[in-house]
Amino acid sequence: MKSVRIGAGLGFYGDSWLPVRASIERGAVRYIASDHLSELTLAILQKDRQRDPGAGYARDVVPMLADLWPLAARHGVRFVLNAGGLNPAGAREAIARLFRERGWRARIATVSGDSVLERLDQLREAGETLAHMDTGADIATVRERMLFANAYLGAQPIAEALSRGADIVLTGRVADAALALGPIVHELGWRWDDWDRLAGGLTVGHLLECSGQGSGGNFGSAHAWAEIPDYVHLGYPIAEVYEDGTAVITKAPGTGGRVSFDTVRQQLLYEVHNPHAYASPDVVLDMGTLRLVDEGGDRVRVTGASGAPRPASLKVVGGYHDGWMGSGIVGFAWPEAYAKCEKAAEIVLALARERGWTFEDTCVEYIGYNSLLGANADPAQREALNECFVRITVRTKDKKLADAFGRLFPWLGLSGPPYIGTMKGVQPAKELLGIWPTLVRRELVESKLEIALEEVG
Amino acid sequence: MKARLAEIAHARSGDKADRADIGLFARDPETYAVLKREVTPERLARHFAVIASGPVEIWPLDNLLALKIVLNGALQGGAARSLRMDNLGKSIAAQLLRMEIEVPETLLAAQRRRRA
Predict the structure, then answer these.
(1) How many domains does chain B have?
(2) Tell me, what's the pLDDT at A423?
(3) Contact A207, A300 (CB under 8 A)
(4) A37 close to A58: Cβ distance less than 8 angstroms
(5) Residue pairs between chains A and B whose CB atoms are closer than 8 Å
């Protein structure tokens, strides 16, 4: 049966591409599907672009390709990356510069048209409410503060770019799983209304989109995480996808990590809401009929995906400015480490109060006690801590106030409780962003979609 | 007898806007049946009362021996406006594994033997 092997690339902006090397060298992959954009990465890229109009893409794509391209070219491996971010053409220029410098040749395609920030008012006029998907709130409450708004495009433009001969496909925002689904459909020739097969491809894309999390990383468990072999050389997941829509998830031989029923099902349900209606731009997947069979030797067979027709609307995620965070961290050693942290928080908050500062929200957390476990930390343990850090964060609309808050902490060094640890934790104001998920009829987005192909080198 | 979920199950959590989502996984069908019976939306709402302002949803997946759990309104509006150390909700699964449920003694004994 006809098949294609796809390897996972990065799982976020800043992830490591070292494991991708193993997938290309020893994993027999034909494509690398690389996800550089988390829900909020576009906010970082927006700031980059404000400083420099040529920026606004995930910069790590340049050193990544500098490292991997010679190997990939030798093995005939093509890349699909959403590293274009807010500026796919800018990413292409940066990569083209690299290729010209090194004397390498490639056909690079860009897929753009996902940004709708400039068109929000037009979309409203066209009848889209752009109301918050979860709360139903009116977009007018945040419209003026919106920093980016991008639709999640699907796999079709990626498959199209590949059929035009692209070696590297650079996109902006696309559904993460589309990065794999695009090359799968291109290679296996599925129809775009073959819902069950597309659902199988979407499952694969979802299993690959978080790099190491599909092969034993972040293996949520007590004890079992310690049995994952060789984290240092953890291999990213690889999918062998068959013409009939089934697949085997595996990884390159000789790499660390583990592909098993237990590790794969964790990734399958990761960041999924209703598992019977996992929506993508190309198909809606029901995970309830999937079968995962652990064949041993780091191979899990995935069959039984069922799909429903693609939705009439695309998801758009916007990010808007939502105030500033002020923060500081300070630590104390035994004795009474926790009590001294509590006292330090009391002092800092009193200093703020006496200055007449008010905040919309205040959060006090004790690192080493409850900063990750929250209300589910065990209070019986806090008196016995060897050491403890307190982290205090505040929310305010005033950037200066957020900055000033952090500066209350150093004073504790000489005038607070004894055996203080570090003052390195004083942080400048950090911008906070609200997320605005909404829906837009797909034809209003897809009419602006552009695929451009350029031969470089 | 009472036991923490950590003794009998695996869990991973993540974020989407203001939702924290958790996959809770049993190792065998017997344990899965216990999870389905004991891990209810009401019980979870109490366990996460401090952080989850919205409803709790659960989808059982017999094919995966897993429960998909969604805590709505649990991330202070979302990762990028949250003041918390765990703004992405990655440790919310650890909080879940601390929850105590009623587990048949024989099942618990079998799980403990398996680990030893």
Answers:
(1) 1
(2) 66
(3) no
(4) yes
(5) 147
Contacts of A435 (CB under 8 A, 6+ apart): A39, A40, A317, A318, A319, B17, B18, B77, B78, B79, B80, B81
Rounded CA separation A178/A183 (Å):
9
What is the number of other CB atoms lying within 10 angstroms of the CB of residue A336? 17
Q: What is the DSSP letter of A85?
A: T
At A291-343, the pLDDT tens digits run: 999 999 999 999 999 999 999 999 999 999 999 999 999 999 999 999 999 99
- Alpha-carbon distances of A79 from A37, A99, A247, B43, B92, rounded to whole Å: 16, 15, 20, 46, 34
Q: Do A376 and B61 touch (CB under 8 A)?
A: no
What is the DSSP-derived secondary structure letter of residue A210?
T
Distances (CA, A) of A302 to A218, A239, A314, A371: 21, 10, 27, 38
- Give the C-alpha separation, A288 to A286, whole Å: 5
Tell me whether A425 touches chain B (CB under 8 Å): no
Say if pTM beats, i.e. exceeds, 0.80. Answer: yes
Structural domain of B30 = 2-115
> Angle between the A195-208 and A261-268 helix axes, to the nearest 10 degrees?
100
Residue percentage of chain A with pLDDT more than 90 = 96
List, for residues A40-60, the tens digit of each pLDDT value: 788 889 889 889 999 999 999
Chain B nearest CA to A379, separation (Å): 13
Contact A241, A184 (CB under 8 A): yes
Instruction: Find the distance separating the first CA and the last CA of chain A, reported in whole Å.
Output: 36
Q: Which CATH architecture has domain A319-434?
A: 2-Layer Sandwich (3.30)
CA gap A153, A446 in Å, rounded: 8
Return the closest-CA partner of residue A128 out of A113, A119, A146, A311.
A119
Count the neighbouring beta carbons within 10 Å of the beta carbon of residue A75. Answer: 14
| CA–CA separation, A390 and A418 (whole Å) | 14
Task: List the domain boundaries for chain A.
Answer: 3-114+152-311, 319-434
Helix axes A61-75, A18-26, angle to 10 degrees: 10
Residue linked to tokens 């599925």: A190
- Residues A177/A260, Cβ–Cβ less than 8 Å: no
Residue with tokens 């796919």: A88
Q: Least CB-CB distance to B94: which of A272, A372, A391?
A: A372
Token code pair at residue B96: 């879940």
Closest by Cβ to A271, choosing from B21, B49, B63: B21
- In this structure, the strands spanning A284-286 and A306-308 are antiparallel
Q: What number is the average pLDDT over the span A385-410? A: 97
Which residues of chain A neighbour B66 with C-beta distances below 8 Å?
265, 269
Q: A124, A183 in Cβ contact below 8 A? A: no
- Residue pLDDT, tens place only, A71-84: 999 999 999 999 99
Average pLDDT of chain B, as a whole number: 96
CB-CB under 8 Å, A374 with B49: no
**CB count, 10 Å around CB of A242?**
18
Mean pLDDT of A265-289: 98
Rounded distance, CA A269 to CA A261, Å?
12
B88-105: b (≥16 Cβ within 10 Å) or e: bbbbbbbbbbebebebee
